């Protein structure tokens, strides 16, 4: 990062010339042309953290699943139902998560554009 800042500073140095003091004969001369107005760069806003979707919780695995005899029928069926419910929740979660990722990617892109705008404003 430090090398990048030095590079940017090096790019700015040629355009940052100090004004020479005015000679006494320049008193009647018109004032110099106004410097171009810098473009206002608008900083991007990240998507709110409250919009971040919450991944569904995995169903709790019954202890009998690892036991030698396995689970009784009702417990196995209950766990199977919980897994099916989780799969449905995960299926619904995916497009919501992808939409949030798109918003994050748009924020990253806008951040890069903002940084470039700031660099351009300093160079003008």
What would you note in describing this structure?
Helix content is 50%, strand content 0%. It has two helices and no strands. It is mostly helical and 124 residues long. The chain has a domain at 87-124.
Question: Would you spell out the secondary-structure blueprint of this structure?
Answer:
Elements: H1 2-12, H2 73-123
List the main descriptive attributes of the protein structure presented here.
124 residues, 0% strand
The tally of helices reads 2
Order of helices and strands: HH
Gap between N and C termini, in Å? 23 Å
Instruction: Average the pLDDT over all residues and give the rounded result.
Output: 78
Number of strands: 0
Which ranges are low-confidence, i.e. pLDDT below 50, for 5 or more consecutive residues?
A: 1-21
Structural class: mainly alpha
Strand content: under 5%
- The gyration radius over C-alpha positions equals 31 Å
């Amino acid at each position: 990062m430090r090398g990048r800042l030095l590079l940017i500073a090096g790019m700015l140095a040629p355009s940052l010339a100090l004004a020479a003091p005015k000679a006494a004969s320049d008193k009647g001369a018109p004032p110099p042309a106004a410097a171009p107005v810098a473009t206002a760069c608008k900083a991007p806003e990240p998507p709110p953290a409250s919009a971040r979707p919450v991944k569904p919780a995995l169903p709790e695995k019954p202890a009998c699943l690892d036991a030698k005899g396995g689970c009784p029928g009702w417990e196995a069926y209950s766990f199977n139902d919980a897994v099916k419910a989780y799969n449905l929740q995960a299926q619904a979660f995916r497009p919501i998560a992808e939409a949030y990722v798109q918003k994050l990617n748009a924020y990253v892109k806008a951040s890069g554009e903002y940084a470039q705008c700031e660099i351009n404003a300093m160079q003008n």
